[in-house]
Amino acid sequence: MDNMLYIAMSGLKQVLRSQAINSHNLANVSTPGFKADLQYFKDEQVYGAGHASRSYSVVGDNGTDFTGGSNMHTGNDLDIALKNKGYLAVQSEDGREAYTRSGSLQISQNGLLSNSAGHPVMGNGGPISIPPSSKVAIGEDGTISIIPAGQSSTSLAVIDRIKLVNPNENQIIKGDDGLFYLKDGAQAQADAAVGVVSGYVESSNVNVINSMVEMIQLSRNFEMQSKMMKTSQENDGTSTKLLSFS
Questions:
Q1: 20 and 134: one domain?
Q2: Is there a single domain that holds both residue 76 and residue 181?
Q3: What's the pLDDT tens digit per position in 44-79?
Q4: Structural domain of 211
Q5: In terms of CB atoms within 10 Å, which of 10, 99, 125, 245 comes out highest?
Q6: Burial class of 19 by CB neighbour count within 10 A (0 to 12, 13 to 18, 19+)
């Protein structure tokens, strides 16, 4: 088989992979705190019989775009946006401690404070549980205060503090669930310098225009690779006819 067909086929495969990454980013354009996945194309040499004169393309995972999104005002006392760098700690589905910028919080039916994806928010001693209350407030340092149900507004009680961390970006990796984890599997230490602002959530950092332009470029690339495969097939047919005359 001519290397041209293999190169076109591998190119087609990598374009499909790149389209999947780009589509995933676009699908999360409205997800609070979402960080876009990055990818790049690189060439690899084709080795085999004969002179190594051709190369094929592969898509490399270049990590995550940690650029911050814009803060959107919601007016919800449970919504928080992080000031500058940092993450809030949550519990993933498998029980591990993970980190996210998504501060769209809510109280579950079991009384646990969780984000919009249902991940319990971590406090000083584990997942934060909110007792029956008439009001819940979150301070700039992540401190959670409540007015217990049936008591006056002067009966403000501090119950816990959201665990806020600020690990180095080269120490964390994004999981398939969209949460961030320390590469060594450990837990990040709480950082008192990380602050939050109540009544806001951070938007996704996906640039819709750039993603749409890339989608068009990938579609054209897909068409080009398909034409190369067809041309290779036609060349193969022509060569077979010429050989049959000899």
A1: no
A2: yes
A3: 666 666 556 566 566 556 689 898 899 999 989 899
A4: 3-66+206-245
A5: 99
A6: middle
- By the 10 Å C-beta count (0-12 exposed, 13-18 middle, 19+ buried), 218 is classed as middle
Which of these ranges, 34-38, 39-43, 124-128, 137-141, has the smallest mean pLDDT?
39-43
Cβ-based neighbours of 217, under 8 Å, separated by 6 or more:
none
Q: Where are the beta strands (DSSP E) in 92-195?
A: 97-100, 105-107, 113-115, 133-138, 143-148, 157-161, 164-165, 172-174, 180-182
- Tokens read off for 143: 């401190």
Angle separating helix axes 3-27 and 208-245, nearest 10 degrees: 160
Which amino acid is residue 136, in one-letter code? V
> How confident is the model over 128-171, as pLDDT tens digits?
999 998 899 999 999 999 998 878 777 788 999 999 999 999 89
Count the residues in the chain: 246
Parallel, antiparallel, or unpaired for β 196-198 and 80-82?
A: antiparallel
* Domains identified in the chain, total number: 2
Q: How far apart, in Å, are the Cα atoms of 207 and each of 22, 67, 178?
A: 11, 11, 18
Are residues 14 and 97 located together in one domain of the fold?
no
Residues with Cβ within 8 Å of 46's Cβ and at least 6 positions away in sequence, in order, are 3, 6, 7, 52, 54, 55, 56
pTM of the model: 0.78
